[in-house]
Amino acid sequence: MKKIAVLISGQGSNLQAIINACQTGFIRGKIVIVISNKIDAYGLVRAESAGISSHIFLRQDFASNLEMDNAIGDYLEDLDVDLIVLAGYMKILTKAFTQRFPGRILNIHPSLLPKYPGLHTYQRALDNGEKEHGTTVHFVNEEIDGGATVLQAKVPIFPGDTVEEIELRTREQEYHIYPLVIKWFIEERLKLENGIAYLDDSPLPISGYAAE
């Protein structure tokens, strides 16, 4: 059974969706470790409740970001993980880390990339009068939110919507599409070659699949 590591910083709601998908057999893999860079991340409670081991790496315990990422990388290699899943991990990974695990790191970002990389995506979409928003699952490279897109889900923005309403609508989609992409990877249907995502040996378009 393939081994999955999940990196978190906060509530861990996407982590919970992945845990559920593993428990039901939808994802035929095993989460062997949950890593957090925050000692009070509620996702650690979710991991403990599911009987999953966890480990905390705090930035202040290391001389540099590179040293911290090297330590995390060593830890993951010792566990022989097949896939690294970023689920609300609010720390920028170093180039050395992303290059150490090419094609083996996935992230979910709350926008329809390449629109709105970075933070505060819901507010920015609202401020710009967008009619729709969404979320993107993508491979991770050294560029922030810049790796090959695998799957997107769109949600409408209605007149009078608040940031909280858009976020809730978007998160509901995340809980469906992230486990699906992880399932594809674990079943060896999804891979990254030369910066291009392939599903069932066919290259995905730049925007990936769009699930309404």
From TrEMBL:
GO terms for molecular function: phosphoribosylglycinamide formyltransferase activity. Pathway: Purine metabolism; IMP biosynthesis via de novo pathway; N(2)-formyl-N(1)-(5-phospho-D-ribosyl)glycinamide from N(1)-(5-phospho-D-ribosyl)glycinamide (10-formyl THF route): step 1/1. The keyword rRNA-binding does not apply. One of its GO terms (cellular component) is cytosol. It holds the Pfam family Formyl_trans_N. Residues 2-182 form the Formyl transferase N-terminal domain. The record marks D145 as: Raises pKa of active site His. This is Phosphoribosylglycinamide formyltransferase. The lineage of its organism: Bacteria, Pseudomonadati, Pseudomonadota, Gammaproteobacteria, Pasteurellales. The gene is purN.
